[in-house]
């Protein structure tokens, strides 16, 4: 982490060519350490013919390249936000992060307004949900520059020890920490299939034990998001992802953790019973669709399906409120589509012919088809005939 902060400081203070500054710093600080740990014959893994072609110098460079790649892989797997934070400061447009952060603030306001009138919640349940929303943290693109980089990393990875010494020692310290966290979790709660660590994935994620929503930088690039895209498209695309993860944060099975990582059941029995009836509707909707074939995704992928459907509906509610606040019509000046059509069109990022995948997820093509076929506004916007597949 300290090296990442120093690298970022070097980039911020760079004058002239920032790429040269990055190479100079990274080479002087990290590669010398990695070279000492390069095992004999490591270059053979990269290129068996390097020695014959380039001699000793080529073998040395290949060893450095191999160890650098291993270092990147290990750090990315264990500390993905810390790793990507440094490089996104260089490549990710600051405007995209500002827009996404502002959108997340609006989503929080909408969430507070929607919790109170939910018919399946009682007073105690609503108070618990509002408290949980108030302490929900988010990482958007990269960590907040104003909060202090190293301090922000420490708050995000509170269990990670001080890392120093050789790359091998740092790697062993990380693995030991991960094992201790997992063992402590199992002692308290028994066996579980739930992820305990930080998932190193491109997609947005909700991390229960930290109670934090992560919107990685990869989502703030096309085809999910783009400064040149219509504002309605960006609101819909980013909103669907953000609301999906916020919905996970309020699931009765997945979201029973406080900010300190301790499990606490804040659902009341009455609300839980009413919510189960809501989930039964989602399960039936996905099981009866024409797209799933023999796999009953409504039963096996219920948490994800609920987050997909609920997330899209909440994003659409946010879109309607933004249109009302702007006092503008539905037509977009940037495109030939109406606002409602452009909103639904943001789902093209999920277009896929893939018919296989983990059973805990529905097929990508269903992530928008299922919710949209149950939205009357969609059928009206695209003039779907009565009793057609999407109406």
Automatic annotation (TrEMBL):
Gene3D superfamilies: Collagenase (Catalytic Domain), Neutral endopeptidase , domain2. GO terms for molecular function: metalloendopeptidase activity. InterPro entries: MetalloPept_cat_dom_sf (IPR024079), Peptidase_M13 (IPR000718), Peptidase_M13_C (IPR018497), Peptidase_M13_dom_2 (IPR042089). Residues 36-56 are annotated as: Disordered. GO terms for cellular component: plasma membrane. This is Peptidase M13 C-terminal domain-containing protein. GO terms for biological process: protein processing. It comes from the Eukaryota. Pfam families: Peptidase_M13. Residues 203-391 form the Peptidase M13 C-terminal domain. Transmembrane segments: none annotated.
């Amino acid at each position: 982490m300290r090296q990442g902060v120093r690298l970022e400081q070097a980039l911020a203070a760079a004058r002239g060519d920032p790429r040269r500054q990055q190479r100079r710093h990274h080479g002087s600080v990290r590669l010398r350490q990695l070279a000492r740990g390069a095992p004999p014959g490591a270059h053979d893994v990269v290129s068996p013919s390097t020695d014959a072609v380039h001699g000793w110098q080529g073998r040395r460079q290949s060893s450095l390249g191999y160890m650098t790649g291993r270092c990147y892989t290990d750090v990315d797997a264990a500390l993905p936000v810390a790793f990507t934070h440094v490089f996104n400061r260089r490549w990710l447009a600051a405007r995209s992060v500002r827009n996404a952060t502002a959108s997340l603030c609006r989503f929080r306001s909408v969430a507070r307004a929607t919790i109170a009138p939910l018919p399946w919640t009682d007073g105690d349940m609503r108070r618990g949900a509002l408290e949980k929303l108030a302490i929900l943290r988010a990482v958007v693109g990269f960590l907040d520059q104003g909060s202090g980089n190293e301090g922000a990393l420490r708050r995000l990875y509170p269990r990670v020890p001080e890392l120093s010494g050789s790359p091998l020692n740092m790697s062993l310290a990380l693995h030991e920490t991960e094992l201790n966290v997992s063992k402590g979790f199992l002692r308290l709660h028994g066996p579980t299939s739930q992820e305990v660590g930080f998932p190193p994935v491109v997609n947005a994620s909700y991390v229960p034990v930290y109670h934090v929503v992560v919107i990685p930088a990869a989502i703030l690039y096309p085809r999910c998001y783009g400064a040149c895209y219509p504002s309605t498209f960006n609101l819909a695309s980013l909103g669907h992802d953000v609301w999906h993860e916020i919905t996970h944060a309020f699931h009765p099975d997945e979201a029973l953790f406080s900010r300190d990582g301790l499990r606490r059941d804040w659902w009341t029995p009455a609300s839980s019973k009413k919510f189960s009836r809501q989930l039964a509707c989602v399960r039936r909707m996905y099981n009866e669709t024409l797209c799933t074939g023999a796999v009953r995704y409504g039963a096996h992928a219920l948490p994800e399906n609920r987050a997909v459907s609920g997330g899209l509906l909440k994003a659409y509610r946010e879109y309607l409120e933004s249109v009302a606040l702007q006092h503008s019509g539905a037509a977009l000046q940037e495109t030939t589509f109406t606002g409602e059509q452009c909103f639904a069109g943001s789902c093209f990022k999920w277009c896929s012919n893939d018919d296989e995948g983990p059973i805990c997820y529905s097929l990508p093509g269903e992530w928008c088809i299922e919710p949209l076929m149950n939205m009357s506004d969609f059928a009206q916007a695209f003039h779907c005939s009565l009793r057609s597949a999407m109406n």
